[in-house]
Amino acid sequence: MLRIGMLTSGGDCQALNAAMRGVVKSLAANVADLEVYGFENGYKGLIYGNYRLLTSKDFSGILTKGGTILGSSRQPFKLMRVPDENGVDKVEAMKQTYYKLSLDCLVILGGNGTQKTANLLREEGLNVIHLPKTIDNDIYGTDVTFGFQSAINIATDAIDCIHTTAASHNRVFIVEVMGHKVGWLTLYAGIAGGADIILLPEIPYDIDKVVEAVQKRSSEGKGFTILAVAEGAISKEDAKLSKKEYKKKVEKRKAPSVSYEIAEQIKEVCGTEVRVTVPGHTQRGGSPCPYDRVLCTRLGSAAAQAIMDRDFGCMIAMINGKTKKVPLEECAGKLKSVDPDGQMIIEAKRMGISFGD
Ligand code: F6P
């Protein structure tokens, strides 16, 4: 008998179901006696004992389905050791659920915060396997996370659509792209969508340089300009502030986000119309793209093999096109950011894209 538990935690993304299907189909084909428990709404389900026994039927027809059949929630890592409002010790409660069900392993799908909690559970003696999910692509130790490619497609589509209307109206347009504290999604979608200016958290911008790039285009007779701005983009000035000072500044900011602030600044100097488009959570929605379906099927299958080998405490990563087990203690708590001096940035700059630096 093999008993596994599964949960999806943090912000959702497109290929969570595909990944769970990959794990369960591979196990079901190779293990005679399998029980799969699905915990509802992330770690919450594990803490409060909300779970259901899943059958192969639950995994049928979900390869292309976005979201997660288990539901998800954010349970901040920094609060994991803090008892809840009723005094429940969350870590102890998770362990109790695990032991009550006599699980052999927990398969945990999630991003950075989720991974940190997975590592904590490993330190507490539970068998865990982590699958790297996030549209942000910021998980250290894997070349790519699932959800990233699907989100690139959506953000690129948004930029493509903005292109035609921007050109018709001779407008400056800002498309604000998700990505939390990193710029991977903005960089890829920005390049794919032909953005003229790309602003990333890893390359603090100088607003004068941004304005200069807009003016240069109009002086060349180009009526419109497209900016792809990461939601976490930060000015050179703000990058010098302490975390606390910056947080305070953002709280006081009148504009709804950094993009609106930049739009105001461009408008003020250039006197042109500037519009902001925020695709927001659409970037996490809908069906996974074929790349993510294949990626998740492979990661899921590799996770199943690790479970059958009883090789736990790792993330299943994709490195140079091959699945690989990366020990959680090597990757948990680390962030994978865009290298501001990396080849991709150099190549983009060479062909005239401004990063506002
Ligand atoms: O981590 C995925 C992500 O979509 C980020 O890109 C974004 O900053 C964040 O989640 C949004 O979180 P929420 O869904 O809680 O608004």
From TrEMBL:
It is an enzyme of class 2 (transferase). Mg(2+) binds at residue 112. GO terms for molecular function: 6-phosphofructokinase activity; AMP binding; ATP binding; diphosphate-fructose-6-phosphate 1-phosphotransferase activity; fructose-6-phosphate binding; identical protein binding; metal ion binding; monosaccharide binding. Its EC number is 2.7.1.11. It catalyses: beta-D-fructose 6-phosphate + ATP = beta-D-fructose 1,6-bisphosphate + ADP + H(+). GO terms for biological process: canonical glycolysis; fructose 1,6-bisphosphate metabolic process; fructose 6-phosphate metabolic process. It is found in: Cytoplasm. The active site is at residue 136. SUPFAM superfamilies: Phosphofructokinase. Pathway: Carbohydrate degradation; glycolysis; D-glyceraldehyde 3-phosphate and glycerone phosphate from D-glucose: step 3/4. Gene3D superfamilies: 3.40.50.450, Phosphofructokinase domain. The keyword Metal-binding applies. Its cofactor is Mg(2+). One of its GO terms (cellular component) is 6-phosphofructokinase complex. It comes from the Bacteria. ATP binds at residues 11, 74-75, 111-114. Keywords: ATP-binding, Cytoplasm, Glycolysis, Kinase, Magnesium, Metal-binding, Nucleotide-binding, Transferase. The record marks 113 as: Important for substrate specificity. The keyword DNA-binding does not apply. Residues 3-307 form the Phosphofructokinase domain. Substrate binds at residues 134-136, 171, 178-180, 231, 275, 281-284. Belongs to the phosphofructokinase type A (PFKA) family. Mixed-substrate PFK group III subfamily. Homodimer or homotetramer. Catalyzes the phosphorylation of D-fructose 6-phosphate to fructose 1,6-bisphosphate by ATP, the first committing step of glycolysis. This is ATP-dependent 6-phosphofructokinase. It comes from Agathobacter ruminis.
